Amino acid sequence: MIIKDSFIALLICILFTSCQSNGSKAYVPESNGNINSLTIVMGKNAWGGNLGKSIKASLMEPYEGLPFDEPKYDLYHLEPSLFSGFARSGRNILVFNRDTTDQGFRLIRNLWARPQITAIITGEDQDVMNFYFEENKSLLMRSISENERLEKIRRMSKSLNSDSQLIDRYGINLTFPDAYETVKDTTNFVWIEKQVVKGHLNIIAYTLPYEIDLKKIEERIPKIRDSIGELYIPGRVPGSYMITERAYLPYYYKTKVNNLDAILTKGTWEVQNDFMAGPYVNYIIKDTINKRNIVLEGFSFAPSESKRDYMFELNTIITTMRLVN
Fold this sequence. Notes:
The chain is of the alpha+beta class and about 325 residues long. Helix content is about 30%, strand content about 30%.
């Protein structure tokens, strides 16, 4: 599995860098579409049949770490006869062709627009097309995920926040829009916040000792979060503060942020002695240069609102972290 994931990561890296240095290609228009949306081009019968069910089951699987299920991607179906002109400018497109020649899976960058990921699956029938989809869906989904991450960064970069608290305090830089404001800045804790409809998005930063024991992460990380919540993140009433919600089992992953090893946790939080809750994403990043662990966490509070795109934004911001010498 590790070998397969590493190979997929290499393919994605090649996909997203191979075209960037080639300025001689023909002009293509700017792509469009909401973040985390995907256009599916296939016949009506296939969309309503087993092939369509398989596509929906994979691409609309729940976004991890939310209190209620929300699909990872919003799917928009188009019949092949309607797939022309403006319809081809979507940022993520999956095309199914029923044909006995050139059968297989192709992944193409910036075919009809820029930036754009287009996957073309050709097969003689639905079963064959579904086979090629299943064989390549990990590569496809990770390519789309990276495409959306880069697009989100591009959009946020149009109005960057210029505050220097994170640089001054920790020597790190994050890419986030100027809608975020610093609400707390102490010796080892920085909290930035963005107001949204019916709530707010938050990013907090602090450091942990380099030698801290993280072997039993399912026990250690919730305790760390709870202690930080009690110290720095109060609720709305006296004596209340943020803690890790124990009713939902968090997701844990080993990952990298700017080539630094990290532990990623996705779960839900609540407030001790108050009625507040929501999702969070937490990264513990091993800074081998400065001999410390950097903790970056994003959490949202938006009752009765969809939270997928909020958490995608927070996660994207954290992945932009880089050390500033």
